[in-house]
Amino acid sequence: MFSLEGKTAIVTGATRGIGRAIVEAYAAAGANVMVSSRKQDACDQAAAAINAKYSGKAFPFAANVSNREAVEALVSETRKRFGPVDILVCNAAANPYYGPMAGISDEQFEKILRTNLMSSHWLATLAAPDMAAQGGGSIILISSMGGLRGSDTIGTYNISKAADFQLARNLAVEYGSKNICVNCIAPGLIRTDFSRALWENEDNLKKALAYTPISRIGEPDDIAGTAVFLASGAARYITGQTIVVDGGVTVTLPGV
């Protein structure tokens, strides 16, 4: 039920953290994976490690997802290497600004939306025809628990992640008749380089864990399992949904 044997997957932001955990889990489940991030050497290293360990094969391809031509090249190269796309995981994200929204520049705001949201629209539009032609597929957007909350430091990032929820709902409606499932995963605080500013500070971490029923920070593998589930036949009747993977943070109420 959870096998991905023979499937072709694209994963962006795949060389570190959550993305790296997902490509490894996919390869372990039998999928062939396109390992993509901005830097070719990082893609090369990640793909080599996967090929040395897992049954599924990996191919490295650098692409800046904020550039449409790069995204088109990524999908085209995937077809050449592995065939039609069965699984798409939009994980790459950017957050060039940390502070109140009154201080963010237009360029920073636009970069966040282009990288975190527009790129997912492009990738889904490019990959969906492959899935439709094969009778179905899975599109997974890696969003964030932040999309459910306000913040005085990462507000624009959270806005982009809230938009993921609606993008998944809309695409679920548009692609449902083609048997394409579109869902979000909304991680809580995960131990990655991307979120280092939030967990490396001991005071921040202590504050976060005070309202986490599972009393630890999340690990990338905690997200990878959900990504395998959503890509597999076990989730074939789930679409338009957001699965929150946060150790229970969103079910608590601080101060009570």
What does this structure look like?
The protein is an alpha/beta fold and 256 residues long. It has a single domain (8-245), classed as NAD(P)-binding Rossmann-like Domain (Rossmann fold, 3-Layer(aba) Sandwich), CATH 3.40.50.720. The chain is built from eight helices and seven strands, in the order βαβαβαβαβαβαααβ. The protein has helices at 17-28, 40-51, 68-82, 106-133, 155-175, 196-199, 202-209, 220-231; strands at 8-11, 32-35, 58-60, 87-90, 137-142, 180-187, 242-245. The chain has a seven-stranded parallel beta sheet, sandwiched between helices. It is globular.
Low-confidence stretches: none
Please identify the top-level CATH class.
Alpha Beta
| Overall domain count | 1
Beta-strand percentage range: 5-15%
How many angstroms separate the termini? 41 Å
CATH fold type: Rossmann fold
Shape: globular
Counting DSSP E segments of at least 2 residues, the number of strands comes to: 7
**Tally of helical runs:** 8
In CATH terms, the superfamily is NAD(P)-binding Rossmann-like Domain
Q: What is the residue-averaged pLDDT?
A: 94
Strand order of the largest sheet: 3-2-1-4-5-6-7
Order of helices and strands: EHEHEHEHEHEHHHE
The value of Rg in angstroms is 17 Å
- Derived structural class: alpha/beta
The helical percent reads 40-55%
Instruction: Report the sheet with the most strands, covering strand number, pairing sense and barrel closure.
Output: 7 strands, parallel
CATH architecture name: 3-Layer(aba) Sandwich
